[in-house]
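Researcher: Going back to the complex we discussed earlier. I've cleaned up the inputs and rechecked each line, so this should be the final set. Can you rerun the prediction on the complete assembly and write out the structure?
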Amino acid sequence: MEDALVKNNFITEGHPAPAKNLVLWRPTAKTGLMSWLTTVDHKRIGFLYGISGLFFFLVGGVEALLIRLQLAVPNNDLLTAQQYNRMFTMHGTTMIFLAVMPLFSGFFNFIMPLQIGARDVAFPRLNAFSYWVFLVGAIIINLGWFMKDGPPNGGWFGYAPLTTKAFIPGHSIDMWVMGLQLLGVASIAASLNFIVTIINLRAPGMTMMRLPVFTWMTLFTAFLIVLAFPAITIALVELMMDRLFGTNFFEVSNGGLPILWQHLFWVFGHPEVYILILPAMGVISEIIPTFARKPLFGYPIVVFSGASIGFLGFAVWSHHMFTTGLGTMATAAFSLATMAIAVPTGVKIFNWIGTLWGGHLKMRTPMMFALGFLWLFMIGGFSGIMHAAAPADAQQHDSYFVIAHFHYVLIGGSLFGILAGIHYWFPLMFGRKVSEFWGKLSFWVIFIGFNTTFFPMHFLGLNGMPRRTFTYDSNMGWNDGNLIATIGALILGIGVAIYFSVMIYTYFKGERVGRDTWDARTLEWSLPCPPPEYNFAVIPTVHERDAWWYEKHHQAEIEKEKAAHAKAEDAHGGIHMPFQSIYPILASAGLLVAAIGISVIDANPAPGIHLKLGLVLVGFAVMFVGIYLWSLEGVEGYHIHPDPEKDHAGSPTQEAHK
Amino acid sequence: MSSTATATIDHHHDPSTTTGIPNKKLLMWTFLASDCMFFGCLISTHLIYRLHPPPGNPSPREFFNPPLTSFSTFILLMSSLLMALAVNAIQRGNVRSMRHMLLGTIFFGCIFLTCQVYEFTDFVMDKHMTITNCILGSTFFTLTGTHGCHVAIGVLWLTLMYIRSFQPADASTNRLWFGRTLLHIAGFIAAIGLTMYLVLDFVHMAQAGTLSGYLGKDALAIAGAIIAYVGLNLLTRTRGAVDFGEANAIDVESMGLYWHFVDIVWIVIFTVVYLLEYI
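Model: Rerun complete. Updated structure for the full complex:
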């Protein structure tokens, strides 16, 4: 037994050189394709999420532009009704699940461990698995573009029984169901990882009430994902059982209830709204104090507001269903809860304004996007409260007013948060800074384009234009509004194009910057830009809420402390790094095969072999082998000793240009 | 690395984490919270359709077999006791005792699964309630089937943990050991599969009154099962120190949390799906 106790998991010396065992092969490539496929570094995984998210953001944007072009003039025939259905389904699904969520997941991965003074997430290989499963889900959802059945056309909400086999035969909905199911697996796995990381991997002195607000919002978002996604998982399981095995969950002739889908979907769907907005609030809460040169006003209130938004987010789902006839009591209760959730949201807005008040505002591009967020999100919030009143909602339901509302929240809120965050952390990620002129130009074009697109939709909605119609007659009074909205969408498209062209240019040719570009307050800025693989040469000790600000103003004390810690850590063998692993991507590849078997292949047994069942079994076998070998290879790693002269973390005077 | 870490491990406090809770345990707790919502939605679906039965929906009382389900429930709960004993054993560093308790847990889990297979066969073949012909069938089979999958995954996990506890401490024999592991897994699949088949066939033939032909019909399966059991027994005869001990207690404990959770879910299902029909 003693052997097991003293067993050392780590090879103590030198660079990674694990024994190349046939069975448990550990890849060692540090550059090239293999290094990305097998990486367990949270920063690289963050980039993978970010790049995938940006790609799907552009795809979703093109879909949006096609929708707007179709609606530019009455009785347009750019798209057929069927193509239009596919466009709005894929636009919604793509933007929510394949663009905004992975982009925030990228930030969680890259920034959160740096903010709490950790060297990685708690389960690095699980983190890689989350990304690859996300990618598999994204592939499955988009397979329809390349197939005869076409992409899904049942709306991002997938209302059953519309999505059952009787109304939409073929495989497009099967792919949608399977893809979302996999995205759920990926999101839950990633969130479990983030929760454990934030609770258990904080640096010494980093108490919960010293966590940066972005990290707090990561934690709340992760809890929302973990508790809300099972509802859509079950809804999708039931729909899949109906479609594949002929069960009766949504088969009305056998007693199935369409309202059940709506409840299950929105029990997930409303927390999902907060999954999309809370991280943006976290980003804003980092940017505003940095550029207002003040600590965040009312930090505990901001944190508790986030918690109450997350909590109340589970009690308001039926406000998506006011017109289904829930009964007076339920409608009143959900109406009240929905109004109540505006309170913590409003409290946050006032806290941000309080932070700005009396600050020395530095109007850099991230700050511009953050202030844009404040204005636009407030407008989205106001129309949200209008929906909370059930009688008013009955009028606005399924009209363009709703479209205007949630685009103000999701673009003006979530997307502006993302755009602000990219600008803010770009120097940290790549060691280069975007030019202020081009950054601000892209902000103004996006800001103007966005408002031109979506503000007229309020009027269109109140004038009765319904959602999800592919065209309209010219005598309805909707012509001007739609034309303006389409022009706005093109401006918005140009703005986004400027934004990303500038980003690409900056990545290659931008101005190089050193550590702590913005003179910021949180720990991620104590690192060289870009941070080394091991993040912190010495794990920091946190003395105050704005930990890096404190370090900058107590340099002598911190120097002494770091030197002592560095010595102690070196005596314990140096910095532990986990080995890379091939198994997360192998297990995900198995899932891809199985998911194709479930969702794409016809069930009719071909003569000879049963292709569908065969693919599913092979896929799950590969996944099983991947996970089994993954667990057998263990948590081994190697140790490195960073040169203290070259990288003296903690000293803001020393810039490490790399 | 120093070899001073010979003191026993404090299983209730992990000094390497901020809170002292081991990461794996925290991960499992959070996952189980997620799984609560998962089963909560499935059970809700069943209860909602129970309150809104369409005309002609069969009454569950026509199908259910309370003595059988009570028996399998009892067995599943007792498996939790064995699981707890396995965790206790490995926390004391007693690998041998842990193996016995794991085998017991696997055995009880398989009894539960066998009862469920019998029950499903009975409902579909004899009582003609399928997953497609009524809403009760849809919700019942989906709910209990999902739970059954959880139990089956648990049995798989227990089996793999049991096999893992034979990994030799001498890493140079790893490749040989991996070959043995594959044999070991194959042995378990054969033993469990054949035994479940033999027991179910015995029961079905006894009910049909054709038991006299049992030995003749199933001779091959019986021989296969015996070979599998002998093989499993031989595979456990290893010498030398193993790379499994008190340090792995957290792995066994996380697995135990999962197993207990699956049992608790069954307590809820047994109450609201079965017992509720008899109030």
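Model: Worth noting: Chain B has seven helices and no strands.
Researcher: Good, that matches what I expected from the previous run.
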